[in-house]
Input
Amino acid sequence: MNVNVIDVGAPDTMQPLTCGRKLVDIPVAGVTVGNHLRWFFGDSSANTSGQLDIRADLWPSSELALRVRRFSENLLVRNAEGVEMLRLTVSESKKWEEIGLDSASIHLRYPWDILAMCEQVVGHIEKNRIDGTMRENVTCDGVLWLGSGSVILPGVYIEGKVIIGENCKIGPNCYLRGSTYIGDNCRVGQAVEVKNSMLMDHVSAGHLSYIGDSIIAEKTNIGAGTITANLRHDGKNQRSFANGQLIDSGRRKFGAIVGEGVHTGIHTTIYPGRKIWPGISTVPGEIVRKDITPDLG
Output
């Protein structure tokens, strides 16, 4: 199947992840959004031949993807607003079957949608793949992919499904859990907990920090004692600002979205659903109550 990923640019609602790059180029678990879609549908095991045009802001459910891969007629998929998200052309017939986007598919509009996509990608790993080094007294109570050149030091506890890239140093005494991705050349140090999060390449979280249900972009340094809060006391869904509007994320637990090249001062506390734009630094002890943009920073 020939797969054409339709570029949708850099939506403002996806900031700060799209600051300086398009949605199609955002790396999710180490692979760009565009390449995830190309590999997903371009697999040689697909039964369908023809042309697939898919928007970069669609992450299809497994059910929808399977239907597309097996479909033998022309197909259109639209979202609830009537926007064409996917077009499969397999014949010159003028007949088209048209279906709506199912609820399990993700329309990638906000940063937390990228987190949900990462959860699904990491959640699909089934068997350990260890190319790096695990020292003594490391416990893996789940499934682990460990890249070459990476080292996990004693006292690390891994629970759930975790992917760690190449040339990383993890530990000692870290707790990694949920569906967590840690990119290449990262440092996660003493007594750091990372839960259900995505750390892109060259992220350093050296000491005594908690990163939960969050995305940390490239070349960010997490200062000692930095905490990303991720739960409201009233149990309601987290909300976050996008384009000046407060949006329900649909997530009960949602931490922070931290842009590229951010430096947090020691003991920085970040409220749930807050975002920090690229290149921003916080001062020691700062409480991030609102999004920090270049204008406010």
The longest helix spans residues 111-123. The domain at 129-288 is CATH 2.160.10.10 (UDP N-Acetylglucosamine Acyltransferase; domain 1).
